[in-house]
Write a structure and sequence with these properties.
Structural class: alpha+beta
Distance between the termini: 26 Å
Radius of gyration: 20 Å
Mean pLDDT: 94
Strand content: 15-25%
Number of helices: 8
Shape: globular
Helix content: 25-40%
Number of strands: 10
Low-confidence stretches: none
DNA sequence: ACGCCCGCCTGTAAGC
DNA sequence: TGCTTACAGGCGGGCG
């Protein structure tokens, strides 16, 4: 659920609220969320006494820089939340797996019911080469400006379907199931069209749709669905779900043409689209 | 190259 | 009412 816009909101808040603060202590409730480490102590030892010196985003990954050249990498998976507590006394949510206590008071907490998310500490210098998931990440659509020609060459080189291409992190980093559906609607394209079938005009529409949808979603602080899985650093829901055109709107009227939004299975996931607006 | 399925998880909701 | 099943989906891996 947290896709590029949601992770970007967390990054911005992290920059203001957490960067500059020093880590006093670290507690982890088990190994699942910190599975790349040998044990809890080894994870804690790489954090305690250090100061957060910056924070970047790569696709859906958050890279929290530490002042000694290490980096705390966070991936929220499907249900992960990074929340700030003003004090240690604040009630702890169920499924809180890692608590980072800061010296000036307050805590950074990692909550993750489905435990697909994770965090680990490694060296910043080598993280983008040695951590495979980061090494193979494609272009970040809001980070590096990319011409629609480069974007088009990437897409038309594949026979895969647009839905799969948009979600392929090796091409473009940060788009998941929700935003791929919204981008395809914005572009007026069906998700089962192949990359190679796109005309130059359709490539431009897809590119523009992608940038617009992602920028708008960031502007509205991301999407929080009915399950309220995504919240920002302060525990607040996003607002972009009110602007969704197709996602989770099965049976409702298309906001553009009033036809009924349909849902179908693509691979093993739900896809929503307007049968009239997308060709 | 591409499509599809599985495993990893838990909470919620629909179905019998 | 109460149990079972489906679904939510990020990501790596595997298989045809």
């Amino acid at each position: 659920m947290p896709e590029l816009p949601e992770v970007e909101i967390i990054r911005r808040d992290f920059e203001r609220e957490i960067v500059g603060r020093k880590i006093k202590s670290v507690e982890a409730d088990g190994m699942r969320s910190i599975r790349r480490h040998h044990n809890r102590k080894q994870f804690a030892n790489r954090l305690v006494g250090k100061k957060f010196s910056g924070v970047e985003r790569r696709g859906k990954y958050l890279l929290c820089r530490l002042d000694d050249g290490d980096v705390l990498v966070v991936h929220l998976g499907m249900s992960g939340q990074l929340v700030r507590a003003k004090s240690a006394r604040e009630a702890t949510k169920k499924h809180t797996h890692v608590v980072i206590t800061l010296t000036q008071g307050g805590q950074l907490r990692f909550v993750d019911p489905r435990t697909f998310g994770e965090m680990f500490v490694t060296e910043l210098d080598t993280v983008e080469k040695e951590v495979a998931e980061l090494a193979h990440l494609g272009i970040d659509p809001l980070d590096e400006p990319m011409s629609w020609e480069i974007f088009g060459r990437m897409f038309t080189a594949h026979r895969q379907k647009l839905k799969a291409l948009l979600m392929d992190q090796r091409l473009i980093a940060g788009i998941g199931n929700i935003y791929s559906d919204e981008i395809l609607f914005a572009a007026g394209l069906r998700g089962d069209r192949t990359g190679e079938s796109l005309s130059a005009q359709e490539v431009r529409r897809l590119y523009r749709g992608m940038i617009e949808v992602l920028q708008d979603a960031v502007k509205h602080r991301g999407s929080t669905l009915a399950d309220e899985q995504y919240v920002d650093l302060f525990g607040q829901a996003g607002g972009y779900q009110a602007f969704h055109q197709v996602y989770a709107r099965e049976g409702e009227a298309c906001r553009r043409c009033r036809k009924v939004i349909v849902r179908h299975r693509y691979g093993n996931r739900s896809t929503f689209s307007c049968p009239a607006c997308q060709v």
